[in-house]
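look at this stuff:

>
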Amino acid sequence: MTTNIKLAWRNLWRNKRRTLIAISSITFSVLLASWMRSMQEGSYDSMIDNVVKFYSGYLQVQDTAYWDERTLENNFESSAEVQKHISGIRHVSLVSNRLESFALAANHLKSKPAMVMGIEPEAEERITKLSQKIKAGSFLQKGDKRVVMTKGLAEYLKLGVGDTLVMISQGYRGISASGLFPVKGIVSHPNPEFDKRMVYMDISAAREFYSAENLSTSLVIMTDDHDHLRQLKRETGKMIPAGTTVMTWQEMQPEILQMIESDRGGGYIMLGVLYMIIAFGMFSVVIMMVKERRREFGIVYAIGMQKEKLGVVVFLETLFIGLIGCASGLFISILFCLYFYHNPIKFTGEMAKAFEMYGMEPYMYFSMKASIFYSQMILVFFISVFIAIFPLRNIGKLKITKAMKG
């Protein structure tokens, strides 16, 4: 077997041009497949990141009945000790309280139902980065008694920074809730529906307004790696108080997950077409190599080399080409995608406006998940191994007289 390996390796480099063409075809195949998958998965990661930052976060701790009936009555008391324990879980980057409810927002002439969100300003800023979307005034600070309104709601009520917003609602356990709140800032929310009806308050002011001292409707959990959501959900579930549950963004926004899975399915179809093109390209290169060496095979067979041994040597040659091509393709793919990972492609013109309209950054992002690269390398290698069967078939049918004339 050692002799066969040596023969195969030396045969490869007797015709460097032919070998380099074959290796280059495999290298390019791995690069193309990896680049496509990296771009696709990077766009999904960016979409998920933008979606969860709009509102839900990656996970939320809630009362078991809250998601089906979002009222103040379905609340829980979030202790600092629980938050500390959850913050200590690996991959958890942030834990923040929210108190959400509704109110009738009004000025002296108009009124409109609004969604009121009591937040921890510093933590919320790290989640949604709302201060970057402030159009007038400034964002909330801890202990603020003022409010920040979304642009659409402010325009409807014709209120600006420094004006007074009137809010009337029902507080915890049916207590009447009403108050006058100076407007500190106007924010343009990326989600068009939220932009028409959102009011942000410091959570202490919201608890006072709704008479819900120390209560929260949700505990938002952010992570630095959303691939560990199942593990985070399992570990968080062990720490939360009785009567509460943990929900992931997929459970809260299943339509986004369905859209991603649907698009990913289309991507797999395109990848399948790409693999077919890759396979035919590699097949043509291998057949070309066999046809060019037909006379060589005939001479070697004529001087006494058995077809089985000749077939093994040729198979090993193809295997070496596949290994070298896949290894070089993996290396180049990582470098190529790493560049775009740190320097995403920026969209301009109408495409950029379309992205910004939906609150997404106008960039094409790339992913550097290890599975993207080694899975493409393995698949292309198996394609090359499968193609190596055809030279064996040709050698098996080899006729000395015809081959010597070839």
